[in-house]
Automatic annotation (TrEMBL):
Family annotation (Pfam families): adh_short_C2
Species for this entry: Maricaulis maris (strain MCS10)
UniProt xrefs under NCBIfam families: kduD, PRK07231.1
Protein name as catalogued: 2-deoxy-D-gluconate 3-dehydrogenase
Domain Ketoreductase intervals: 10-210
Lineage, highest ranks first: Bacteria, Pseudomonadati, Pseudomonadota, Alphaproteobacteria, Maricaulales
Keywords recorded for this protein, A-Z: Oxidoreductase
MF-aspect GO terms: 2-deoxy-D-gluconate 3-dehydrogenase activity; NAD binding
Family recorded in the similarity comment: Belongs to the short-chain dehydrogenases/reductases (SDR) family.
């Protein structure tokens, strides 16, 4: 088999693909040839325009992953509308900041429901279809806090450390069934998720000072990793957590 990053004929479901990293990955997958389904709570019209300009089909499903019971419906609708599901990008995520001494159960549960519980059950629902078709690619979005502790983000660190562990567990169970389960761990990217850090002059300086590349990541920096892990070029890549971090973890 020749090396291929081409995604022609594939269908990718990207959660939270209306903005930030999800939008950038959806557009990159479309440019590589995939039709795109975005599931999320906000309008993804801008992503849709970019996907259609790349010549691919675009579908949108309204879903709020703070209620994990919606995930089976999201995957079923993806298959009904787009015909199949070849790629799942579990990107939707939230963060809550507070000192661990003051952290509330609401801020724990809300982050865990979106970032890990919905993500797992999306993997399960997608994998049922992928096992039946004998192939599929799942990309979970991890974080530097899949490797490090962070500060004032107890539920976020717990959820992203869990994503790294879950990615490896699912790779163990599903690799032999033709499904590649991997994760991308973004470093510090300029999106809504990091708006508070970018706006805090001290944290901004600390973060920039530690990134060997010397700049925040731009969402467009993440597309190549998503295309690679979605493609036949990654057929023998299982259970890895690929950092796209400007060198942050190398420090
Ligand atoms: P963002 O806030 O711009 O995007 C988050 C996306 O998730 C949005 O589309 C939002 O609508 C969606 N979402 C959140 N809660 C949802 C819910 N209940 N139901 C449906 N959709 C929901 O942030 P981003 O930086 O683009 O984040 C994307 C992913 O990347 C997240 O998982 C985040 O944790 C991760 N990440 C981001 C960075 C970074 O530096 N920006 C670093 C590491 C990991």
């Amino acid at each position: 088999m020749s090396l291929s990053f081409n995604l022609d004929g594939k269908v990718a479901l990207v959660t939270g693909g209306n903005t930030g990293l999800g939008q950038a990955m959806a557009i990159a997958l479309a440019q590589a040839g995939a039709d795109i389904v975005v599931a999320g709570r906000s309008s993804a019209a801008e992503t849709g325009e970019a996907v259609e300009s790349a010549g691919r089909k675009f579908y949108e499903i309204k879903a709020d992953f703070s209620d994990p019971s919606c995930v089976e419906g999201v995957v079923a609708t993806t298959v009904e509308q787009a015909g199949r599901i070849d790629i799942l990008v579990n990107n939707a995520g939230i963060i809550k900041r507070n000192d661990a001494l003051d952290f509330t159960q609401d801020d724990w549960d809300s982050v865990m429901d979106v970032n890990i519980k919905s993500a797992f059950f999306l993997c399960q629902a997608a994998a049922k279809r992928m096992v039946a078709q004998g192939s599929g690619k799942i990309i979970n979005i991890a974080s530097m806090l899949s490797f490090q502790g962070g500060i004032r983000v107890a539920s976020y660190t717990s959820s992203k450390s869990a994503i790294a562990g879950l990615t490896k567990l699912l790779a163990n169970e599903w690799a032999a069934k033709g499904i590649n389960v991997n994760a991308i761990a973004p470093g510090y990217f300029a999106t809504n998720n990091t708006a508070a850090l970018q706006a805090d002059p001290d944290r901004n300086e600390q973060i920039l000072g530690r990134i060997p590349a010397g700049r925040w990541g731009d969402p467009s920096d993440i597309g190549g990793a998503a295309v690679f892990l979605s493609s036949a070029a990654a057929d023998y890549v299982h259970g890895t957590v690929l950092a796209v971090d400007g060198g942050w973890l190398a420090r």
